[in-house]
């Protein structure tokens, strides 16, 4: 669940998104794709226009300066231990299909 401090910092990113010619959602997707070890994003949507907006983010990139600004705004609210991603996504034996 997103806490108030994180939501407040996300609001601080909206002007940067505009400067980059993106929506806040597109900025978020572009930022996630610049993280080490990330090759894709699964973004949720509740309306068709959000799907279109998210898809438009696929060709967008953040330059190093914008990436640094996002990192500065988010600060310590982001867990930067990229090793956790691999651990959480590891396939557990109980998740695999067995053939009789």
Automatic annotation (TrEMBL):
InterPro entries: K_chnl_volt-dep_bsu_KCNAB-rel (IPR005399), NAD(P)_OxRdtase_dom_sf (IPR036812), NADP_OxRdtase_dom (IPR023210). Residues 8-73 form the NADP-dependent oxidoreductase domain. Keywords: NADP, Oxidoreductase. GO terms for molecular function: oxidoreductase activity. Pfam families: Aldo_ket_red. SUPFAM superfamilies: NAD(P)-linked oxidoreductase. Belongs to the shaker potassium channel beta subunit family. This is NADP-dependent oxidoreductase domain-containing protein.
């Amino acid at each position: 669940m997103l806490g108030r401090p994180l939501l407040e910092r996300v609001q601080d990113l909206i002007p940067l998104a505009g400067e980059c010619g993106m929506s806040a959602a597109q900025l978020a997707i572009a930022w996630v794709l610049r993280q080490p070890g990330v090759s894709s994003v699964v973004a949720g949507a509740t309306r068709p226009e959000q799907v279109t907006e998210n898809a438009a983010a696929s060709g967008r990139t953040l330059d190093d300066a914008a990436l640094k600004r996002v990192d500065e705004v988010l600060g310590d609210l982001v867990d930067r231990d990229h090793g956790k991603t691999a651990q959480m996504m590891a396939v557990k034996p109980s998740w695999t299909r067995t053939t009789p």
